[in-house]
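Q: What would this chain look like folded?
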Amino acid sequence: MLKGVISLSISIFFMSISSTSFAGDTGYIARSKLMQNIRLEFSVLARMSRERIEFDESLAESTRLNLLKLAASTPVIFKDDDLPINSEALPAIWENWDDFVSKSADLEFALEGVDTSTLADLRGSLGNVGATCGSCHQKYRMK
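A: My prediction, written as structure tokens:
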């Protein structure tokens, strides 16, 4: 239980930082923060599903909801096509904008389907999220 409380605290901390910091950031920095936060939030669910942290239904659901908010903000955050040399984003994002937005919507759809009721349900539904992330990264992220 203590691990779950710690993970929840970390999640809430990063979400509070990210939601306020995205507003002032543009381009590469905002995209980088968004992807870092998605990775952090997803890692909570992944670690929970692998029993590296204790399953906590409340934490799992709040994490899923945080991920939904982050996923919904992806097209807005990626609208700016600032591409510094250290960016992992490919220009193909903006060349195929409608497809990119569609893949973002696919992530939201996959997250809607994540069942956080039990550990078994989480395990059974989390793979779709990873696959959806991977389909976008294969096409729009440097390897």
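The chain is about 75% helix and 0% strand.
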